[in-house]
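Q&A log
Question type: sequence-to-structure
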Amino acid sequence: MNDTYQAIADRLAADIAQGRLRPGERLPPQRDFAHRHGIANSTASRVYAELRRRGLVIGEVGRGTFVRAASAPPRRALDEPAVERVDLELNFPAVPDQAALLARSLSGLVRRTTDLAASLQPIGVRGTAAARHVSATFLARGGWSPDPADVLFAGNGKQAITASLAALVPTGERLGVEALTYPLVKGVAARLGMDLVPLAMDDDGVRPDALARAQRTTPMRAVYLQPTLHNPLGTTMPRRRREALATLLRQLDLAVVEDAIYDFLAEGLPPLAALAPERVVLIDSLTKRLSPGLTAGFVVAPPALSERIALSLRTGAWLVSGFALEAGMRWMTDGTALTIMDAKRRDAAARQAIARERLSGLAVRADPRAYHCWVTLPEAWRAEAFVAAAARRGIAVTPAAAFAARPGHAPNACRLALASPDIAALGAALTTLAGLTRSDPLAWDTE
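Response status: OK
Response body:
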């Protein structure tokens, strides 16, 4: 077949427009699509990218690709506006006056030519001595304060995670993860040839006995964990569990990548990095704290692992820009970051209160400080069908399969990200989803 990717995308677009591919329907994995159509995997990837560019499909790594509603016919100028898509898939927390606060802090940087010129110079993974000191002070929590010499910088938290995993787990080796884990890590493991080892959890997080058993039977090179406000479950590991894991990590001679991106919402507990500093690489960033548009990622790495991770950041080109780092330093030192973080803690609590009210009666698991919640669906619904039904109503949610470390072992549940919509849209969307759970799954597509 000699069709260009545009021609194939055109045919799929026509199928969507004419109803042969229905809203919420899942497209096959790209490899399967390539095989069915006799095209290269790279061509299939371009087809899917083109469909996303046209706004015809939605999806992410680990979840799949789903058909969105076909474009509506042109509306008369005086028609009521169409309902906008409500995004409960991704968390981009923002609070009122956030942009003004950030801009005010940057005004001095852009006014002073010498400061601006310095910030536009290339910068290495270790930044500057001043940046390391400011960042170490800012990242301190729960009685723990990192050594500034241990701080490395990346473009954002995702890059920091990717570089750390790439440095610690060679191709073909095993990475331990919570049984439900961050989809990015699943994608990184697939691309870099790592085998994931799911670790059983309880209400306190990863079970030490599960970690020990996995290391005996399927030895791992490292483990990736989210001890605080786990995504998607919202679990926060208590101190006694953290201490038990720290002791076990030393016994097993295991390195851990600790994802602390959401720690700012639930202060108080020391990170694993405080309890086993020689074993733990802590990852944090300014993305959730402040803004995804201008951010920096932090890696606090023990000396024995620092150079390996620094080399991974360099070779992967996962580098922070000088301007972003200078902006971050100003926000961290002049009170802007603390003001916005306090506002986001209040915002997250308010959104959780709305979720508790609108989802009352459902099996919801959530921490009142988190920006997400976990909903176990009634037996009548399957998660993928629920996602498709929600999409038809203009609401994007994430099925449990996106987080399951082992394919085919996902609970019948969905994660709802609460941060992105405005409060009114969030409340309305949650009310719609609650009503959907009480409806007949066999009838939703005939409405």
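Response note: The longest strand covers residues 280-285.
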